[in-house]
């Protein structure tokens, strides 16, 4: 097998010395971690290597590196003699001449041994470098027994902002955790946990979002440090998205409260509700006449129409009763948008739900009526044909009816059949209105979900520091001189932008359509009540 | 050239892709166990770009003449620019490279017209073999070169197939040349 040597770029220009690193078993490869410079005392080097090995790093002397400068003629023979001082199975002799780019490599083997093939070289290389952290504490600028060059000798990458944040994070985390424990204990207290409150808070998306954000903050502010990469990325993503959310929310609040726009919004709210009610009344008057040229059953039409009109009248009275308080309520509730843009959107969704509650009621009435009609019709149709639904066997069986049963059944069937167009039309109209409201709420929930789950930190890292998110490695052949071994440059291959989102998405209660399109259409046809967007209580990844 | 590689390209007219368009193959032998194959497709043709742009803008002007709405013109400009950028950055592949390094692995890379490169490296331990497969594509049977990957649990089974040169789609004569070269290297290690 071909011998492979992984050599750090920084050691390319290093002075002559001893190569230290690690052999990868089974691969016929070596990873060079550092170069110990001449002059050194072999005894001190052995002591240092032993000391580093005791702190868990797997380290051996691999060979010698020579880049002779002027005035160092005795170097070659000295380096050759080193192979006797540090006895190894294989001794590498890498050398480079000034002015040339390629190295020359010579291997002295003492005991050749065949080893089986194993896969996955690149992770082993990076794993080796990671484990060798204690080795990188000393470099050639320190006063010590050995002077080394390694990939961190030119300095570690750091940033003042990151260091300051690390210092400030501990007290801030403790404070936030304390506040959060207070808040969660308040939320789970007996007063707020009675059945009606729990039901309402599970329906209002603002409360759901609030509980969700509390959970997020608890994850971020936990005092334990994140050890695994995934855990760290999740904390960072949650923190950055929370920060962006809150800043957008504050921007929105400052814009809305600046010229009393919130007051103007509150002033338009009641007229908007009035307008919607007026439009609904006109719609009902149209249905009570001859809508789209269809001929309705006059009596049923009038009954249903008057029932719904009275309902609208009640609703408008309640709205007008509340209208003096609307501005104040909206002013205070609008302040909660400071907690984030997601809260503003959830608030908007809840306000829409409350203002269109009458549409929801109409939909339920129309759907129930239609559903009863359809079920009655199907059951009486079976009677008409002399069949019956067997509940035990869940199938249709034939059945002999009495004459009076048949007579009444047929009569009822005919009545329901001729009333069907009227109920169907009311059902259709109110279902369409309900679907419009549901679509609007769905769009708001989807955008809230997007803000919650999008990994902003991972995306920023991929765009600006792409070497921190690695998918693999890539190689490039370097031009070289004849007679030297093959030189390849190994670079980090960063993660593809499309897979960043998939890998680092924050898990969330995404609202997804509960039924497939076919099942939804079937439910609509039969008149069953639909709840198209389902909020899962458990999180999905 | 003063480097020790052998570098030669085949005559352009010999190689075509499955649609009949001319492509070129370049083989570079960096060492005894390292070879690089580059298949280049035709570059972006300026005539086609001008034709599409003129067609879009002419129709935009006609719509503007009818509706007197300037938004039509600006949207036509934006659509043309964005479409061109998306095409050269995400769609149009300039050349595809296969770098095979004995006992280390195989690197497959596509380079797009805007200069973006998308690379994938497969370790030698995962590669079972490099073969030429047949596929039925619409009404024709085409040949494609692919890498067979080993299943980690069962070394004899093939877990997945990675097709090579998917955008350039060279014909069998070009594939045979690459195949023979790769097999020489795979046999050595």
UniProtKB/TrEMBL annotation, chain A:
Keyword Membrane applies: yes
Biological processes annotated in GO: GPI anchor biosynthetic process
Pfam families membership: Gpi1
Keywords per UniProt: Membrane, Transmembrane, Transmembrane helix
InterPro entries: PigQ/GPI1
GO-annotated cellular components: endoplasmic reticulum; membrane
Transmembrane annotation, as ranges: 238-257, 303-322, 329-356, 362-384, 405-429, 435-458
Signal sequence, start to end: none
PANTHER family the UniProt entry points to: PHOSPHATIDYLINOSITOL N-ACETYLGLUCOSAMINYLTRANSFERASE SUBUNIT Q, PHOSPHATIDYLINOSITOL N-ACETYLGLUCOSAMINYLTRANSFERASE SUBUNIT Q-RELATED
Full protein name: Phosphatidylinositol glycan anchor biosynthesis, class Q
Organism, scientific name: Oncorhynchus mykiss (Rainbow trout)
Gene field: LOC110494404
UniProtKB/TrEMBL annotation, chain B:
Family listed: Belongs to the PIGH family.
Pathway: Glycolipid biosynthesis; glycosylphosphatidylinositol-anchor biosynthesis
Keyword ATP-binding among UniProt keywords: no
GO MF annotations in UniProt: glycosyltransferase activity
Listed transmembrane segments: 49-66, 72-90
Organism: Oncorhynchus mykiss
Biological processes per GO annotation: GPI anchor biosynthetic process
Domain annotation Phosphatidylinositol N-acetylglucosaminyltransferase subunit H conserved: ranges: 97-166
Record's protein name: Phosphatidylinositol N-acetylglucosaminyltransferase subunit H
